[in-house]
């Protein structure tokens, strides 16, 4: 009998840890850094340290190449801030079913951000394609960041 109770307790502990791991992993997976990783890995970002940018993602020199790099760096910053705020917002939600809905919404929001940026670049080529695409990503991300800051008040 003692062995059965110990086995049952160990099984319950395992199940509890497993479920806890799923909930934690689901919360962490809600953060989406795919776009930032993709932007960071662009070939034109190899020498980004040599580019001078202001705090809003604008270039100091004014050419399209550096403007694209500055926007890329600024997007990475905004996306990171937005993901931090999103994590804070998720921590505020105590109801798991609502939390799941919010995570699903965020995943759809990321897809929509990409779609809207793709639509905005229709027919554009060269450096201007990247500039318009990233500008859209920045604008939409800023709005989501503002929304999350509002929801956290």
What report would you give on this structure?
The chain has 153 residues and is mainly α. The chain has two domains: 1-30; 32-151, Substrate Binding Domain Of Dnak, Chain:A, Domain 2 (Up-down Bundle), CATH 1.20.1270. 75% of the residues lie in helices and 0% in strands. It is built from five helices and no strands. The longest helix is centred in the middle third of the chain and has 29 residues, at 64-92. Residues 9-29 have low confidence and may be disordered.
- Beginning-to-end CA distance, first to last residue: 54 Å
CATH architecture annotation of the largest domain:
Up-down Bundle
- Portion of residues in beta strands equals under 5%
Poorly predicted spans: 9-29
| Structural domain count | 2
CATH topology of the largest domain: Substrate Binding Domain Of Dnak, Chain:A, Domain 2
Total beta strand runs: 0
Mean pLDDT: 82
In angstroms, what is the radius of gyration?
Answer: 21 Å
Helix content: over 70%
How would you sum up the global shape? Answer: elongated
């Amino acid at each position: 009998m003692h062995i059965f109770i110990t086995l049952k307790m160990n099984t319950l502990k395992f199940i509890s840890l497993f479920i806890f791991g799923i909930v934690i992993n689901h919360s962490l997976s809600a953060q989406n850094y795919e776009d930032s990783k993709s932007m960071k890995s662009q070939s034109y970002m190899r020498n980004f340290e040599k580019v001078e940018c202001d705090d809003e993602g604008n270039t100091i020199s004014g050419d399209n190449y550096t403007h694209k790099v500055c926007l890329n760096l600024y997007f990475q910053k905004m996306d990171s801030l937005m993901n931090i705020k999103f994590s804070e917002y998720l921590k505020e939600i105590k109801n798991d079913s609502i939390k799941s809905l919010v995570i699903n919404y965020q995943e759809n929001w990321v897809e929509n951000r990409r779609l809207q940026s793709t639509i905005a670049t229709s027919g554009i080529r060269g450096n201007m394609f990247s500039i318009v695409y990233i500008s859209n990503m920045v604008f939409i991300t800023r709005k989501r960041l503002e929304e999350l800051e509002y929801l956290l008040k």
